[in-house]
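Subject: Re: docking follow-up (zinc ion)

Dear J.,

Thanks for your patience while I sorted out the input files. As discussed at Tuesday's group meeting, I've set up the holo structure prediction with zinc ion included as the bound ligand rather than trying to dock it afterwards. The sequence and the ligand SMILES I used are pasted below, so you can double-check that they match what you have on your end before we go further.
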Amino acid sequence: MFKGLMFCILTLSSLSVFSQAEDSLFIRKLADEILTSGKAYENLRVLTKNVGGRLSGSPQMYKAEDWGINALKDAGADKTWKQECQVTHWVRGAREEAYLIQDGKKKLPFKALALGNSVGTGKNGVKAPVILINSFDELELKKDEIKGKIVFYNYKFNPLFIKTNQSYGDAGKYRGSGPSRAAKYGAVAVLVRSMTHSTDNHAHTGSLSYNDSMPKIPAAAVGLKDADKLAAMLEKGTYSVYLRTNAMMYPDTLGHNVIGELTGSEFPNEYITIGGHLDSWDVAEGAHDDGTGCVHSIEVLRALKAVGYKPRRTIRIVLFANEENGLKGGTAYAAEAKKNNEKHYFALESDAGGFTPRSFGFSGSPEQLAKIRNYLPLLLPYGVYMINDGGGGADIGPLRQALNTPVAGFEPDSQRYFDIHHAENDVFENVNKRELELGAINMAALIYLVDKYGL
Ligand SMILES: [Zn+2]
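The structure tokens for the complex came back this morning:
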């Protein structure tokens, strides 16, 4: 009795800004709607299986845009449209060929996957001695041995970070800037150990970023089993590698952010943006990255409408273009908002997979963070137990920069994300329906609370 009373007093005092019982019932209603009549999983199936991989500039990108408009209409959006933007147009071409040459003739093939935005080798490929480089420090130490060689960066995904996106942040520079850093010392091509803890041999692509003052050299990712094998051989002997990639970079082309709105009843000119990115790598179905973010966002709109919620502010779902190899959708969205003097109240992105909810990351003022943290007891039953200080998403980053909009990122469990990230096993079958739905519930609940009580 006494314990129960204390709990009530403590809970009520910490939730004094809002009505806990009413809100908890409303969120339960949203959850029931998503768990019994949810469309996120079926939407994802259609996107991944009927459209598939949808890299910017590909025919599938346009197909995905149409899918997005239809899904938003079906969800009950008051209006939908496509916002034009110029997007990166990089094409992989025919699949890569790679092998290690042993004793001057024996070919030991391995899987290589060109990095996004990389140049191709030309049809004859590149054949050169390969040098094992475990870190940028080692690259600097061996800079006089690099000329004319293929650099193989074997920097490992650090297992000590509990959140794997930290390992990704740590290792990502070998993919992003590694090629140009090797080119600076005369390398002719680069191989990069994939950014993953996975125990399989899928190669994981992702975009690189050339330094324009260095020669642009071809670059490809290698799966972990092959990377370990190559490294073990290179520690004992000297070898050459043959690599052929067929990638081409074309001029930017027309693409679109796909947008759907529920018009606000009190402040129709104040926007709450919820989104994910519609593009994906070509070799996968882009299920977790970022099909789940797209269907999460659409489901938030659908569920709020289905339970009869009338948002105070305009809720805008945005399926962003070209996140993977250009960020031109997010950039155009922010530029347009700034040009039109729009008031962007809050933005939420889901681009970390469709796994079990764990937390949100929030970037705003300390007061806003404290206010959002007050909502935690209402999210806890559905899995979110923490609001981290700092977070957001790549696509809503430009909005924060341009308009100082408070932003948040949905943070599901990260342990399996990099098993599939940017690899051919990022497919629909690797998404769990329940986990996906729980993500949508937490996002819908957060949007409801922010819309109702403000930041
Ligand atoms: Zn993504």
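A couple of observations from a first look. The radius of gyration is 24 Å. Residues 277, 289-290, 323, 351 surround zinc ion (CB under 6 Å).

Let me know if you'd like me to rerun anything.

Best regards,
T.
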